[in-house]
């Protein structure tokens, strides 16, 4: 209940107890979306890393399952991926049903190596391959493999990170057991400050471009990212089955402080065709969040695409990666109503009724027209001298989340802050979709062109929403409020 766990996410995935970090082994198989994750089965801080497990049929409601891959003999099970081996190339399959194969990093005895585990019962039980490791280059920072079937060359391709060198390495295999190096990429992008972890590589459609696609390589850095601490960057380019070539400069994945190590689902059927990923809703720097008996949640699953944001007539125009919450989440909307926000002015005024948002999980969709005002936006989760602010600021042209007064900000000195995403103002307007959970806020700007993901820990139980504008030239229009029901009951 609320009193016992006031910050328990109501529509974001969280483990019932104990510590969680990166999503792992995301794979769709036989009607189920599998979500494995870095998990400490013994406590509420990082350690004994193993793979926790949950499944969902709708990417919204999750069934918690027993531990899938456990730490053993001083070797932790670090991050990795999962594939369905449809042609039984590995030989792990029994009869007609293809095996699920996990490819993960074994961390221990001073090295990081790549290991396999397999399941012949829809991921319910796992066997570690007796021939592990399958890839060992005698390196202490070699981790987080992501594997996919590359149809044109008819083989498995792996992208894996040499973390300290800020390099990813591509390997190929016929059977998931023997790997040969193809090429390397990096250092590139923001190379100054940190390591590279948890790479992913996939093809994305360009919106409205008749099925044209481009490859995207995503990498994460433990520190030194755009809002401080951990975060991801991506490169748009080409992958010819051997080598990745970036055709644009690196861009940031998310402008908040709490979106790390996202990876995408493998084996989503062609009939669906979506590329969906989920990220760890956290930051290594401030990861000791003030919750118990669990720590951490995931972002909402997001659908990815590419969008041209420069001159549409320029075929080489810059592409940005667009992220949108999966449509399945809309089924949680128990009540939707327009709210009148047209009279936005200063000071901020309440636009919701007392008691309307008691469960504190909701979505707000709106259009901000800044006019000549310095800023315009919303305050949510308000209390006495407490609020989280989401708005547009014309100098320097950003949407921001300000969590400096969001509640408990004192648990870590780097937590309080304001996080900004540079945005386009199209015809005088910026659209935002704000997802608010009991301890999290995700802001999707201009239909997913930029995202700000931040955790918040409000102490107030007054979930009122207020609207504000610096002056009356600003307009806030088309505002819809959706109250969301909990996934826990
Ligand atoms: C990223 C990471 C990975 C590693 C895992 C360990 O957050 O550091 O590189 O596999 O966490 O838990």
Automatic annotation (TrEMBL):
One Gene Ontology term, aspect cellular component: cytoplasm
GO MF annotations in UniProt: fructan beta-fructosidase activity; sucrose alpha-glucosidase activity
Keywords carried by this UniProt record: Glycosidase, Hydrolase, Signal
EC number annotated for this UniProt entry: 3.2.1.80
BP GO terms, sorted: sucrose catabolic process
Residue span(s) of domain Glycosyl hydrolase family 32 N-terminal: 12-309
Protein family (similarity comment): Belongs to the glycosyl hydrolase 32 family.
Protein name per Swiss-Prot or TrEMBL: Levanase
Chain's gene name: sacC
